[in-house]
Write a structure and sequence with these properties.
This protein is 40% helix and 19% strand. The chain is α+β, with helices and mostly antiparallel strands and 341 residues long. The chain folds into two domains: 79 residues, no CATH class; 230 residues, Bira Bifunctional Protein, Domain 2 (BirA Bifunctional Protein, domain 2). Helix 5 packs across helix 10. The radius of gyration is 42 Å and the shape is rod-shaped. Bound molecules: adenosine-5'-[phenylalaninyl-phosphate]. The site of adenosine-5'-[phenylalaninyl-phosphate] has 23 residues, from strand 5, strand 8, strand 9 and helix 10.
């Protein structure tokens, strides 16, 4: 009997020493300590032994079970240790290396310019007024003194929604009517930033969607000189204290008289270069005195109130400021462009 146990012990321990992984350990446990193992069978057969041999054989069998269990636990622990050491070795980590910097987001150049423009107007006492992108024909055209079939509509072709009479605004000017109708007969000083849409050919200077910042001041005794002074002050805050401006006569159905404002080219300071196409001046906005019909549509009596309005394009201003040659970069989602600002 003792010989059987010794053979079992040696065979089990030799098999255990050869094992190198978890699966092998599980198989060994089933084979040597499981219900059908030789040891379990020996334990179960103790009852058949002569009574004199039984105690000794029982002790030996139990001692062997404990010995095998301990050997199994020790071998499992050793395997875990060496596995950990091997994986640490394989994926050696140099904790002194500097970390990879996380990519940081930033505001889009159009948003930065829009915010800079709005901040300047806020310093000058103008409130931000938000108005909607989807407008009705009445607000985008008729209430701004652009009747159906007026040739000026050709300048502002747009995208129409499936609801008849509703469209994507072609400019921020419809917001003038919303602001006036909300505040009349109080005086107003507001700027209206937001996205505009036009159904037109995309060129290096024209996109089908772009931002505008509209401005509107309504009150008693507001004159064209106020418009000129205020817009020139804006240009100096935006482009530098020495910036000169000039006003050229223009036409908008919703202002009378109308003008376009140019700033002196900040690259060549007026002597002529590629950015200003040798003109020495760069156009940045359209403006004028609010047309009496528009004042009336907004709820003001044009006999008592006057006002000025203007509309500028932040992308075009950013193009001038940073020498960006093509407006299509703005919405091209190319990080090489966006990361420069
Ligand atoms: C207007 O949209 C008038 N509503 C501006 C105005 C407001 C005049 C109030 C008088 C009183 P205009 O179409 O010129 O005007 O556009 C104004 C500015 O928007 C332009 O100077 C330009 O900076 C920008 N802009 C116009 N079309 C585009 C375009 N397709 N892509 C990018 N920017 C544009």
């Amino acid at each position: 009997m003792e010989q059987d146990f010794s053979i079992m012990e040696q065979a089990a321990l030799a098999a255990l020493r050869a094992i190198g992984d978890e699966a092998g350990l599980r198989a060994w446990q089933a084979a040597w300590l499981g219900k059908r193992s030789a040891l379990a069978l020996a334990l179960a057969g103790l009852g058949q032994l002569p009574a004199a041999e039984r105690p000794l054989a029982g002790q030996r069998a139990n001692a062997l079970r404990v010995q095998l269990e301990q050997a199994h636990a020790a071998h499992a622990a050793a395997l875990r240790e060496s596995g950990l050491a091997a994986s640490l070795q394989a994926g050696a980590l140099d904790v002194t290396l500097p970390g990879r910097p996380a990519a940081r987001g930033r505001l889009h150049i159009a948003t930065q310019t829009l915010r800079q423009i709005c901040a300047i107007w806020a310093q000058m006492g103008f409130q931000i007024y938000r108005s909607r992108d989807v407008e009705t024909e009445a607000y985008n055209f008729e209430l701004l003194n652009i009747p159906p079939h007026h040739p000026a509509r050709d300048m502002w072709d747009t995208f129409h929604t499936t609801t008849s009479g509703s469209l994507l605004r072609t400019h921020t000017s419809p917001g003038q009517i919303h602001a006036m109708r909300e505040y009349a007969p109080e005086p107003i000083r507001v700027v209206l930033p937001g996205m505009c849409y036009r159904y037109e050919q995309i060129t290096p200077r024209s996109e089908i969607q772009f931002n505008q910042v509209e401005g509107l001041a309504v009150g008693k005794g507001i004159r064209f000189t106020d418009l000129k002074g205020t817009l020139t002050d804006f240009a100096r805050r935006m482009f530098g204290a020495q910036t000169r401006t000039r006003f050229r006569a223009s036409y908008f159905p919703f202002t009378e008289p109308s003008a376009e404002m140019d700033v002196e080219c900040f690259l060549c300071t007026g002597s002529g270069c590629v950015v200003c196409k040798q003109a020495g001046w760069l156009e940045i906005l359209g403006c004028g005195m609010v047309h009496p019909k528009v004042l009336q549509n907004g709820g003001y009596d044009p006999a008592q109130y006057t006002g000025f309005a203007f509309g500028m394009g932040p992308e075009r201003i950013a193009m001038l400021k940073y020498g960006i040659k093509d407006i299509r970069y703005f919405w091209g989602n190319d990080l090489r462009f966006l990361q420069q600002f």
